Amino acid sequence: MRKWRLWLSALKDTVNLRNKAGRIMELFSELFNKDLILTNLHCSSKDDFFEKVSNYLMEKGYVKENFKKAIMEREQKYPTGLRTDPFHVAIPHTDPENILTPFIMVVRPDQEIEFVEMGTDDQAVKARFIFVLGLNKSEAQAPLLEKLIEMFMNSEAMNRIVNENDENKIMDILKKNVA
């Protein structure tokens, strides 16, 4: 009888983990929105990028008024540029209290934007793609970052994204590789 209880307990734990993982993957899928995939956005600098993105997100009702200030301060303190192949990316984000509706905004600027490499104070990374993360639950951040980094290391997926101009197709590639 005791073995059955242990087995049943282990089975419940496994089912709970799978359900939780399924809910997290479902959440990731819901974070992508065609309206938040911007290709060829003209930005003269990182500050200009944050200005345009913050205004856009505020107009769409995703973020609070203090989002721009918060994301710029966090980027200054904890840089998010990543050296990846075939091109570099950045994943700026801020704390959940600045977010109204969770999202992942994907931006391919018309020219690379210089970010500081994550884990350094001064190493420049010219990001070809920028994934702005707006999560309102901090526990979802680590698994999402893990899935994004897996995708960043997938050269085939990244080449497809950088060469695609159709927002629907970009969203499909992202969902397939992240969600």
Protein architecture, described:
By secondary structure, the protein is an alpha/beta fold. Helix content is 49%, strand content 21%. It is built from six helices and six strands, in the order H-E-H-H-E-E-E-E-E-H-H-H. The protein has helices at residues 2-31, 46-59, 67-77, 141-152, 155-163, 167-178, and strands at 32-41, 81-82, 88-90, 103-109, 113-116, 124-134. Strands 1, 2, 3, 4, 5 and 6 form a six-stranded mixed β-sheet that branches. It is globular and about 35 Å long. Mean pLDDT is 85; it is low at 1-8 and 14-22.
Quick overview of this protein structure:
The protein has helices spanning 2-31, 46-59, 67-77, 141-152, 155-163, 167-178, and strands at 32-41, 81-82, 88-90, 103-109, 113-116, 124-134. By secondary structure, the protein is α/β, with parallel strands linked by helices. The longest helix is centred in the first third of the chain and has 30 residues, at 2-31.
List the SSEs and their pairings.
Blueprint lengths: L1 H30 E10 L4 H14 L7 H11 L3 E2 L5 E3 L12 E7 L3 E4 L7 E11 L6 H12 L2 H9 L3 H12 L1
Helix pairs in contact: 2-3
Low-confidence stretches: 1-8, 14-22
- Gap from first CA to last CA: 40 Å
Radius of gyration based on Cα positions: 18 Å
What is the level-2 CATH architecture name? 3-Layer(aba) Sandwich
Instruction: Please report the first level of CATH classification, the CATH class.
Output: Alpha Beta
- Structural class designation: alpha/beta
What is the H/E order?
HEHHEEEEEHHH
| Mean residue pLDDT | 85
Instruction: Supply the CATH superfamily name.
Output: Mannitol-specific EII, Chain A
